[in-house]
Design a protein that fits this description.
This protein is mainly β.
Amino acid sequence: MAAGGRRRRRAWAVFAATAALGLTVTQAQAASGGGNDPFGVRTLRQQALLHQQKGLSAFAEDPGEEDEDESGNIAEQADQYAEARTSPGIVAPGAYGAAYAELSDLPHTGGSWRDLTKLPYDSDDPRYRDINSNSSGGAGRVTGRVTGLAADSHGYVYAGSANGGVFRSRSGGGHWTNISDRLPALSTGDLQLDGRGRLWYATGEANTSATSFLGTGVYVLADPRKGSFGRHDRVGGDELESTSINALRFAGSKVWAATTRGVWSHSTKSLKGAWKLEFAPNPDYLPGGPKDDDPDAAYKNITSDIAIDPKNPGKVVLAVGWRGGDTYNGFYAKGAGGWARLSGLGDLPSNSEDVGNVTFARSADGSRYYAIDQSPEMTAENPDSGLEGIFVSKSGSPTGPWTRIADYAQLRDSGSALTGAGYQPGIQAWYNQFLTVDPKNPDHVYAGLEEVFETKDGGTHWTTPGPYWNFGFPCWSIDPSKQSGDCPATTHPDQHAVTIGSNGGKPYVIVGDDGGTYRRPVSGAANAEGHATDWRPLNDGTMDALQYYSVGVGADPAGRGLAITGGLQDNGQSMLRPGDRVMGSNFGGDGGDSLADPANGCNIAQEYVYLAVSVTNNCAVNDGSWVTDPSKATSWSVAPPDSATGEARFIAPLNADIKNKNTWVAGGRHVWINSHGYAIRSGGEWFGAYDLGEGHTATAVASSGGKVYAAWCGPCNNQGFTRGIAVGNADGTGWHQLTLPVDGTVPNRYLSGFAIDPDDSGHVLLAVNGFSRKWTEGPGAGVGHLFETKNGGVSWKDVSGNLPDVPANSVALLKGGTVAVGTDLGVLVRSSSRSGWKAAGDNLPTTAVLQLRTGPDGRLYAATHGRGIWAIDARKLR
């Protein structure tokens, strides 16, 4: 294993020692007088290793290899989400479009979905300042990740969310309306307004993170102030389907697209006709090429950005390369002999080891070009940062000469919150980047990494107007009467998009990050530390782009109705109790799988990542007094041992027995059983029921009456993908691996969910992710997404029927025998009396449904990864 992997395991060993005693790292420090950090499991120490894991590669050469220079390991966990949809091969163009067409042809059941989380979500809610919360960090109201932004000079703002589509505001941000729900893909790569005022929407988020979805191409809206996107607005054909688009750039009558399958172009005058492939460094690996079945095919033609000389539109520079490093990485320009690698650019590196994820920006007057460059070599070897630097070309030409104007140390010392070893500015430069120039001042630049940076003198001096959070600054306080003590509000961490617009002649900058959108005047106010005092969150609840992994529902202890909770990408755990007008966050960080006691919704088990499970019995209500008295903490870390060894997936499965809420099953390399329910207080109380085997990690677990099913993969990527199912009893007896031959009986794809018949534990439904053989080019991809066994897994039958060929994430068995399947394009149901599938109800956006759970009220709850939590009366689905 590469050095990055070993660092993770050593650091986790420290965490394990305290977790085994039922304390978080922070509790242990406070108890010994060692400090009063407020972050719980999200201490910066944990951040340093867990966020770094987002950049470790699952597409490594050999998981047992000890090559210190094996740069492929640096994306290990980031791609686990994509693995579920692509392994054992790659997805051919047309897959999502075909699935959407199939789904559109299905009839609908009765009933209408209700969006439960379309209301403000306060990450600093003063009710929930418990040990595992980020409340008081200063980010305020949040929503899901925003990866594209565009704004005009009349107050119109367009925000593209990671998997919730495009939202429009007529008031400079806020009061959002979705304008893309009729499209088959709601994942945003880029948003741009062209010179004619048209809005270009590039689908397919291209930051290669753990939760990025592929897209279906580029769409253009002629009048974005009034209209909404439709399928007829697509530019060209299906050439850019099943890919991701990092950037759109315009020059003359041509638009350029930087994609994960090379660089493409299209006319901006006529939107018909095919896209033209301008450059692919390794064309043999493209779909239809002789090497398109190679395990690394998806990583051989990645382009991050395009720079066009404002004085000569024919001079184009391409930033090409996989963030983890490859021999083709570099900058390319077109000469008489075709596209060729550039060198001699000045301070901007041209060697493949130091060219990774790149973002360009040019000044309005054409006098400056700026660039951010992430170094694959630094990412692999520097424990503090992967940032090569920020650069400027004062000639205005993308060919330079370029001068470095910032490195990570300079940014660290500019007011950053990230000053500790192991997590400094640019540690996630492969994931976090934006860059823009003030239209009225070519020396005034905003740069986004984990934080928001600003220079007003062309890079001589930098400040941090949007620090990561306010923890650690002298002005910070956990006082519930204040948002963040005496510190000004800041932005959410992890920056992705930026735009400059205006309204009534007043210019503003808007940033998009893992918490949504934030606005301030272009030349705003700041305190003595350089931290802005005028950020305004634009996340008023009307843009429900929240990215849920899970949902839990239970009766509110006050007897007023139901408490609804769920784990979110980088937005912790949301808590919605009856009467709430604003949701609160009672756990911080990445919220993974979660459980809620049906009889008491304030009994909650929440996974951070890698099975770092915490439990609370009062919804984690706390005023922060645990900082000085650890005994007042109302949450306990109860992580199973696989969390300490790193032998669990980034979002690992956690479930409760359907007949005994106090029997829990968790899956890493091992199948872990907790028989204490919500009374568990330490990780040592888990019982290891079964070892799935070295290199195997659980993808789904389920239990009924003590009979347990655990699906696994390993390897989980294209390089030798295998999957399996183990069955046994919660007491550790009777365990065995099922025989799942690669013959189509159960496809050799990611096994994502179980539903057990409560009347017969041998009757089980299995959801299978990814696309079928028609679209997935890999061994044993097979056909089908839903399989059934009536004999405990001895034999299986494909019961997919006319289920659209789309990744299936979750399956639920409802009363009366109705089956519900959560897919990447919504929820489909089939009643016991019918053989055909229907779309479940009306009003649910076409987005990924990662988990389905039934509540004690008889409703079906859907955790969508991009549009919040929705519910429907399950009786209407028969």
